[in-house]
Amino acid sequence: MEQVTTQTDCDAFTAQASAITEGIGKFKAPSSMLLGETATVQLAIGAQGGPDPTPILNNVPGATQTIDQPKIGRHMVAELSGEGFTVTPTGPQQQELPPGSNAVWSWAVHADTQGEHVLVLKTSVQGKGTHGHLVTLMNSTLNTQILVKVGPGQRLMNALSAMPVWLNALTAAVAALATLAAAVFGLLRVLKKREKS
Hints:
The protein is of the alpha+beta class. The chain is built from three helices and eleven strands; from the N terminus they run αβββββββββββαα. Strands 1, 3, 4, 5, 7 and 9 form a six-stranded antiparallel β-sheet that branches. A five-stranded mixed β-sheet has the order 2-11-10-6-8. It is rod-shaped. The N and C termini lie far apart (about 95 Å).
């Protein structure tokens, strides 16, 4: 059932929109990944004058980007997406940001496709209505480029899989001949032993 927005809700949303401020944001993601690799990507957001969110991300490898004066409010949502990746949130995407505190979001990002790809981070400030429902008041996005590379082992597998059909058939035939030759030599040895005895 669709939620009806009342005048009271409109007034509440207007008040919450006017309370939106500029905060501090840090986003940590790798600049490159290997094809098939999974990396942890994190976002930390806090209020200006509050605790620095940077130390929260120290245990995550990658480059830390400063988000230029992100818009923050009491209710925040952060979503991560990107073509060429499988992105799985490892925590709630909707969080409360009490005054003077930090909020942290985390995702597991799996590299599915080789090449240059872009992760898109979307953050939203939400307003809360009188019945507890949330509506988006303001959005912002951050694009991060990641190079997905192929490792040496993967290169070899790709080269083998790209070999022409005739070459694969020739390789199989050589292997079969080698097996046959080994069997013939083995039989000859057995026959020679019988002759000597």
